[in-house]
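Spend some time on the protein that follows and explain the fold to me:
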Amino acid sequence: MHRFKQLLSAIFSLRTVVVAFAVILLLLKHQYDVLEWVDQTLFMVAQSITSTEAGTLLWPLNIRGTGWLSQQLMEHGLYLSSYFHWLEVSLVSCAASFLVVVLPRLNLATGMLLVFCLTVSLILTQLFQQAFRQQWYPLGVTIQFLLLGFGVMLFWLLPNRKIQLLTHELQRTKIRLSRSLSQQGQFHDADEVLASCTMTGEALGATYDMALQHERKRHYDQAIAAYERIVEVKRSYKDATNRLNELRKFDSASSQPLGAMDIASTLVLPDKQVGKPVLGRYEIERELGRGAMGVVYLGRDPKISRTVAIKTLSFRQFDSHLLSELKERFFREAEAAGRLSHPSIVTVYDVGEEPDLAFIAMDYAQGKPLSHYCKAGSLLALDRIHGIILKVAEALEYAHQQNIVHRDIKPGNIIYNPSNGGVKVTDFGIAKIVDDSKTKTGSVMGSPLYMSPEQLMGKKVSGSSDVYSLGATFYQLLTGTPPFDGDSLATLTYKIINQKHTAIKSLRADIPAATSRIVNKALQKDPEKRFDSAESMAQAIQKVMDKEFSREVAR
């Protein structure tokens, strides 16, 4: 429709009048004496140059009758070349092309200068051919067309220049508006503004930048639409064609909707040819792992070149009527976790929200989760295990003092760096959000293998529940098996609530008796019978280390 309007505008304009005037002039030039006036004048001027007697012909410069010029040409032996007809057609066509194509692209002063130069050139050419080469080249029709056509074009050029300036300013305003809207995250409105712009120059650049943002924000459908608008106008614009082709391949190869995500799925991570997705200001590099709340990614803050771990919470796993409450509690709990400052707790840098998920950016802890050291053949030395649990217990005590309960202590949420013995506990405060929200829908979230009996029964959870989970983690790190296991959630839940765990000494004889007592106390069904705090558990472990391993781990 836009191109059709442009075509109609081109047809019904003064430029069309100029072209039509050129055609009519060529067809009717022999029927009207007035069209020979320029040729008659130039003929007399040329004659006055070559003969002093001809000077009387210069005055008055009136239009001679029909046949006068032909008679003069015969008397002076001047004849029209056989090919001049086509030369004249070519000259008039070139003049018309100049007026309707080149002239509108020039400023007014430059256009006037060029028309003047062309007119003088044609006059001098005709005079030179007659006066010095005795050849007749009647260029009067071309000269008249050039001058009259320029006069007609002025009526179109002057108001059109003002219209073009206004249109250009409106286009720039729309582009600035679209960039401002995109910076505010209002991509739909920004797209609508850009779609109303003519796809030239700066608009192409703005559309390309918008497409890149759609790529990075995982709005791949919108990115494809933006690149298609660019390629339709200019296929060679930057790498738009290549990016469009890659996105189309990526779209057809992806089994899930672009950008869709639930707790078991990951963000769509395309090939290198397609822009890296971003969450907030963080560029997503790759997937690191998965947890109860969602997927964990390795990200990068481009502003300060900081590597971060990004934990995501997909909104798709929750009922829509719970979403508003979930978001409020998520940011409240994340803010509380962000206030924790302990050497054995991962630092929270930032929280954010996307249309389909919320995320937390935190310190990327070097090392591996303790889940890598929970199976026979990969168990750590006893002294290292005691040192790790000691540091985790101290971190839990610090968090409990801040009224924050972890609720999901397990090997996968404890990062251990064997090179320096560093320990980092992750996911503080997050499991509480996921667990509570899921419990309302009738399902259980978290890691049942390490859950306390009261947590599985849906009772109020305190720091004592974290002590139980740490005891279960301690048990598995020592033996390679969890204290309870089952082939179904119901069986596992029953065992945790009702049965006693297998004695740890029966699984590993070299475990100190004091360690066995610590594990047994931490795994008590009744919270009142466990350690009264994580600090008490840490003190008990410290005593075992001082006695059994002949060295003290710095606390």
Summary: Confidence is low (pLDDT under 50) at residues 54-60, 255-266, 433-446.
